[in-house]
Specification:
alpha/beta, globular
Amino acid sequence: MPAVVHIVDDDASFRASTGRLLRASSYEVVMYESASQLLERIPHDSGPACILLDVEMPGLSGPELQSRLVAGKCALPIVFLTGHADIPTTVQAIKSGAEDFLTKPVPMHKLIDAIERAIARAVRCASGTINLVRCAD
């Protein structure tokens, strides 16, 4: 079963192109155009997975979604990927448990490396190697 990457980004062309690249790298990809859409269909126990999350989106922002997921004990690791990076947002995302915080455009090898680390973290969480609180922190 391939690992799943949940892409949450309001830019349709970004979602499509990134989805194609990740599928070509043997990931299963699920795309959402908003943070609210992910919350409505939040994945549970779907095997190794992570979230590739934009920061600035209409409605619920990426950091706001991260806060809700952490509060709900969702242990899916998050990789932020944004064109709107600033130091306070980056620091807060990492302190809240984000696996990585990348700036668009990002070289494909850096994106894959971040996703691989996030998937490895999801596997450790699922196997009990690290506890849920640490997985969500």
